[in-house]
Amino acid sequence: MARRRRAVPQAREARPVPGPARVPLPSHGRPQPAAPPTDIADQTSRYEQRRAAILDAAARLFNEKGVRGATLATVAESVGLRTPAISYYYPSKEHLAAACFLKAIAVFDDIFSHAAQAETSATRLALAVTMYFDWLAEVALNRQPPVVAFNDIRALSPPHTEGVFDAYASMFRQVRRLFSGADGPVFERVEQNARAHLLLALLLWVPGWIHRYEPEDYGRVAARVIDILRHGLLRDAAIWEAGLRHDITIAIAAGEERRNAFLHAATFLMNERGYRGASIDQISARLKLTKGAFYHHNTDKQDLIVACFERTFDVIRRAQNAAAVIGGDGGAILCRAVGTLVRFQMSDQGPLLRTSALHSVGQAVRINMVIRMNRLSNRFSAFIVDGIADGSVRPVDPLVAGELVGGMINAVAELPLWAPRAAPDAAPELFARPLLTGILSRDR
Length: 444
Description:
Blueprint: H1 40-69, H2 72-78, H3 83-86, H4 93-115, H5 121-140, H6 160-177, H7 189-205, H8 218-231, H9 238-243, H10 257-277, H11 280-287, H12 291-297, H13 301-326, H14 330-346, H15 363-390, H16 398-411, H17 415-418, H18 427-437
């Protein structure tokens, strides 16, 4: 019997973004021709269709070039309009970007609000993941338009930030509802927030790797993700404690202290404020240095981003190598590497540069950075394969599991935003352990 396709939620219309009032041009006393009869309903329909086409085109361009890199001119060209005509719908790129983010939030809000109505936490989790992958398949098959990624959401400036961030926070509360209820473990609010942030971050990470699969296989991938989220990666939760018994420190190489301080400051500001918000002046001021100190190490800002990624890659590689050298089974090595990187993210030396910065570099550089990140993700998959072989890791899809581990590490830096009361040294337990032992488990 053919499997019935689950209904995929349609994107709700984003809340209106105010634009300038249309003022009729003066007639200068000349008689004006009578207006031809029009159908108001048809006019409204054409307006909404064109407005939707602009939003879809803008989302594609923002995902490709970033909010900073795309222009109203390129958006207009992609829909066959002149640039001034876009202003009839959206008076500025900021208005257009805000509308794109609100539309994306509406898609996720529909998924999570629908899933939150299920009876049990396990059912709510499975339904949310399944609906999301169903929607991704519809996008891949060109049956639904893509929405803008949230990578560049910090590129917005007031007054647009308030409405978008409020809508995002409301969506986050829908995710948190998935972990409430009397059917399973009762989590404290900080635990709910951490798990909600983890789940949302992992789902937002999926578009970066799901293209490796055929859309017809997205359902199978979703099932594997659900299995990992529900039951974790480790065969036994005790492996988590065993893996963290060795404390690994990522030391700074001698003679690199000043350059590392510069890269650390740049990474922190770009993660917090986005590419545009982290100016050379702000980075220099944070370190109480002159612009000359910046240009002594970097030719331009893109060079700085590449250097920050190189630092991030080096930290991840060194944590992986140190965890492997200590030895043990694959599960213990995985826990050791993960725990080290989570602690680093929350330490004075952290954070690592988030992948959202990729939108700020050229395509050739971006491709190279993605290849480098994939290699490091594959190393996590290798630890998982070893763990499956020696029995310390459950039989899971190692490629999918490796991507989930990488997505979790990438998102740790934002944990204080959603769980501000959590102590930094509690991050491994709050954020990493739920992925390794089950996001619905509380076996401490």
